[in-house]
Amino acid sequence: MKLLYSPGACSLGIHVVLEEIGKPYEAQRVNFGEREQYGSAFTAVNPKSKVPTLVRDDGSVLTEFPAIAYWLARTNPQKNLLPDDIDAQARALEAMDYVVATVHMQGFARQFGSSNFTPNPADEDAVKAKGKEIAEKGFATLDKALEGKEYAVGKFSIADSAIFYTEFWSKRVGITLPKNCAAHLERMMARPAVQRVMQQEGLA
Ligand SMILES: N[C@@H](CCC(=O)N[C@@H](CS)C(=O)NCC(=O)O)C(=O)O
């Protein structure tokens, strides 16, 4: 398998899942600085111009964080990256979707790429402020869900790798994480798989 990633991007969460699984894979850096994701070599693989992109052993390509994480968890059941219990499984998917679709795509995307949300440069500070508000509401919601728990649905699951990448981004935009999210981030950073990914992506 090959993961196409950009250091510190949301692909970080999938990189963690691959390290948790522990099977051989290749991690190929996509250089965002050089806009490689828009070049023909990349778009031939993923026309969406986005990471994470997973090229599977049979050559087929899987995109979208929740789909990739779900597929990796279900094809490696011995790693218990998704609970067996249907209700807990649904909770894991609920948390993952909330992180990707709301906290990331509505909250952080406004802060990292405010010009994508308005044609008027004068509005960009307001866009960023709205993004911060959405992300902070997201962390407050996740914080409640994490109350009294080490991980989102009991044991470590793919939901935690999604929560982790947005927690990891919080410092970049000056968000102070609420206590359960801060403890969750610390717990994630202590995992050997996460430490290996930090080294590999040059983030340590
Ligand atoms: N909905 C996508 C979001 C992926 C995404 O937004 N990736 C960002 C990095 S965090 C990206 O590749 N951005 C490159 C670009 O838009 O040029 C998913 O779930 O994977």
Shape summary: globular
What count of helical segments does DSSP give?
Answer: 8
Strand segment tally: 4
Q: Low-confidence parts, pLDDT < 50 over ≥5 residues?
A: none
Tell me what you see in this structure.
It is built from 8 helices and 4 strands. The chain has 204 residues and is of the alpha+beta class. Strands 2-1-3-4 form a 4-stranded mixed beta sheet, covered by helices on one side. Helix 1 (11-21) links the parallel strand 1 (2-5) and strand 2 (26-29). Helix 1 packs across helix 6 and helix 4 (86-112) runs antiparallel to helix 5. The radius of gyration is 17 Å and the shape is globular. The two termini are 24 Å apart. The mean pLDDT is 97. The site of glutathione has 10 residues, from loops.
Quick recap:
With about 200 residues, the chain is an alpha+beta fold. The protein has helices spanning about 10-20, 40-45, 65-75, 85-110, 125-145, 160-170, 180-190, 190-200; strands at about 1-5, 25-30, 55, 60-65. Helix 1 crosses helix 8 (about 190-200) and helix 4 packs antiparallel against helix 5.
List the helices and strands and how they pair.
Elements: E1 2-5, H1 11-21, E2 26-29, H2 40-43, E3 53-55, E4 61-63, H3 65-75, H4 86-112, H5 124-146, H6 158-170, H7 179-189, H8 192-200
Helix pairs in contact: 1-3, 1-6, 1-8, 4-5, 4-6, 5-7, 6-7
This protein binds glutathione.
Glutathione is lined by residues 9-10, 37, 49-52, 64-65, 100.
Essential attributes:
single chain; 204 residues; alpha+beta; four-stranded mixed beta sheet; 4 strands; 53% helix; 7% strand; globular; binds glutathione
